[in-house]
Design brief:
By secondary structure, the chain is α/β, with parallel strands linked by helices. The chain has two domains: 122 residues, 3-Layer(aba) Sandwich (Rossmann fold), CATH 3.40.50; 117 residues, Rossmann fold, CATH 3.40.50.620. The chain contains nine helices and ten strands. The chain has a ten-stranded mixed β-sheet, sandwiched between helices. Helix 1 links the parallel strand 1 and strand 2. Helix 5 packs parallel to helix 6. The protein is elongated, with a radius of gyration of 22 Å.
Length: 284
């Protein structure tokens, strides 16, 4: 079943994840599934400590360690269930009318998402996880691995929810970003929202021709489109344009053979995600 899957944890960004996932579910009239993955640090891993403990206290301490691990596991599971229940209740309050489900898994987030990849219509993740709550522009440890691994649209969100009213599509004429334009044009996610298409590069006839294709494709789909060609560094231009035009969400094609690709996977891989104060939708 094609659905919106939202990854939640114990971080403060979870509320925004719930709200953006609910918005996407409403826009696309798609089922919504909340996913909570218990990492290895949150559930016990059997370890033989008998060789590290003195003979006199060995059995007593091993028993205490086992009991503590069991308690920790039960607390983590119960906390996860409570979070999932709260997320479902919040989605209902946000007006979601499609089916809402939840799942809790043990293991690694990337492995779990690979297992569910065929079910994902849109994946919603916070820019930070539990370990990044107080780290300013820190990016969650799982995010880059997920973006590199999955071939599904991923909505990376900041700490606060604002319902998108204007979107920006980063375009460079590559096959990847042309596909991104076509996906935006065909998706109900952005239906009726004003759309800005921004191309970063030299002022050449070829660039204007490519930009016109993007503008016309979106206009044919019913979008109110503003197209702009600007010079400069990709991340700086996009962030400045976002501020200038009060953009609420940025769409980018990920891993194309272009400046966008170099920007995403080069030394500045995380720069736009760190700098952006709005959600970033990565399309493969």
């Amino acid at each position: 079943m094609s659905q919106v899957i939202a990854c939640i944890d114990g971080s403060s960004i979870t509320l925004a994840v719930c709200d953006y996932a609910a918005w996407a579910s409403r826009q696309m009239d798609a089922p919504l599934d909340f996913l909570h993955v218990l990492g290895k640090s949150e559930y016990p891993i059997p370890v033989d400590l008998s060789g590290n403990i003195g003979l006199g206290s060995r059995e007593h301490l091993l028993q205490e360690l086992a009991e503590l691990d069991e308690k920790r596991s039960k607390v983590a599971l119960e906390q996860g269930r409570l979070m999932l229940d709260a997320a479902k209740a919040r989605a209902l309050d946000d007006g979601v009318t499609s089916p809402i489900t939840s799942r809790q898994r043990h293991g690694e987030l990337v492995d779990t998402l690979i297992e569910f990849e065929s079910d994902i219509r849109l994946l919603v993740m916070g820019r930070q996880g539990e370990q990044g709550d107080s780290a300013g522009e820190h990016i969650g440890s799982h995010l880059e691995n997920v973006v590199r691994t999955l071939h599904r649209p991923i909505l990376v969100i900041p700490a606060d929810y604002t319902e998108p009213r204007r979107i920006l599509v980063a375009f460079d004429g590559s096959a990847t970003t042309r596909k991104a334009v076509e996906m935006v044009a065909a998706s109900p996610l952005f239906c009726s929202l004003p759309c800005h298409v921004v191309m970063v590069g030299a002022d050449k006839p070829e660039a204007h021709e490519q930009l016109e294709w993007a503008r016309a494709t979106l206009a044919k789909a019913g979008f109110e489109v503003t197209a702009s060609l600007r010079a400069g560094q990709v991340e700086d231009v996009l962030c400045a344009y976002r501020t200038e035009h009060a953009i609420d969400l940025i769409v980018m094609g990920a891993y194309g053979h272009s400046k966008i690709r170099e920007f995403l996977v080069g030394s500045t891989t995380t720069k736009l995600i760190r700098q952006s104060k709005v959600p970033l939708l990565l399309l493969r």
